[in-house]
Design brief:
It contains seven helices and 17 strands. It is of the alpha/beta class and 262 residues long. Strand 2, helix 3 and strand 3 form a beta-alpha-beta unit. Helix 1 packs across helix 2. The chain binds ribulose-5-phosphate (5RP).
């Protein structure tokens, strides 16, 4: 399996593998969504099966819930957990303050609820996700189906007065149908190019009727584990102000993750 992995997949894998070290016995863990988070779920499943790690996981999507159950992680709801020790999730972009754009996989609403209900959030990402300014990746916002086009027009109008470089938006599609989130909503992707003030934009977007949540995560992430294609990992802790380097060896013959679909 590892021979066939691209450098980006290797980077995602090593970030996830290193982040799994932060999960301790007995923890209630928020499980993110996306290809990097899927590596994490696999790594944790291995720890559960082979090393007796006891954790309860709160998935951020039906996809992640299915994968977590398949690899042997006990899955509970957020309301059963009430509060989480740690959430580990991927991101589409992160900046030097560990502000994030998330939602490329369409799960931003559950991801933000889960991350906010956690003592700590760790982001796992390949080095290509680091940016100086957020916004090159289109910002996803979750909107309710009722009055969708009116909401879209209102969002674009509001963006005129925001510190952004673009204000076009597109409705995310799944084939010829509008993409539907786990909560039955749709996603608008905002093509902003550069977001000058993520905190202000996040607040303004969430004031708008019809907008359920936006993919800007401001002051939520505590650590980022950055993976490189050659096996290096870097752990940056925004609270401690520390940076630590490490290296993860790729397993020689590893078919553990061969059925990974995400
Ligand atoms: C899903 C997300 C993902 O974490 C984000 O899109 C990154 O995905 P990947 O790890 O596949 O690059 O926010 O809603």
């Amino acid at each position: 399996m590892t021979e066939e992995m691209s450098p980006i997949d290797k980077a995602k894998f090593v970030a996830a593998k290193r982040a799994a070290d932060f999960v301790e016995d007995g923890m209630r863990v928020g499980l993110g969504t996306g290809s990097t988070a899927a590596w994490l779920v696999r790594c944790l499943g291995e720890q559960v099966r082979d090393h007796g790690l006891r954790i309860r996981g709160v998935p951020t999507s039906t996809r992640t819930a299915e994968l977590a159950r398949a690899v042997g992680i006990e899955v509970i709801t957020l309301d059963e957990a009430k509060w989480l020790d740690l959430t580990i999730d991927g991101a589409d972009e992160f900046d030097g303050d560990l502000n994030l754009i998330k939602g490329g996989g369409g799960a931003l609403l559950q991801e933000k609820i889960v991350a906010t209900a956690s003592d700590q959030m760790i982001v796992i990402a390949d080095i290509g996700k680091e940016v100086e300014h957020l916004g090159a990746f289109p910002l996803p916002i979750e909107v309710i189906p009722f009055g969708l086009q009116t909401t879209q027009a209102l969002v674009e109008e509001t963006l005129i007065s925001m510190d952004v470089l673009g204000r076009d938006s597109t409705l995310r599609m799944n084939g010829d149908q509008a993409f539907v989130t786990d909560e039955g909503n749709h996603i608008l992707d905002l093509h902003l190019k550069r977001i000058g003030n993520p905190r202000q934009l996040a607040l303004v977007l969430n004031q708008m009727p019809g907008v359920v949540e936006n993919g800007l995560f401001v002051d939520i992430c505590d650590k980022v584990v950055i993976g490189f294609g050659d096996g290096r990992v870097e752990v940056r802790d925004i609270n401690e102000g520390t940076v630590a380097q490490d290296r993860i060896d790729f397993p020689e013959a590893d078919n553990l993750f061969s059925d990974l679909a995400d």
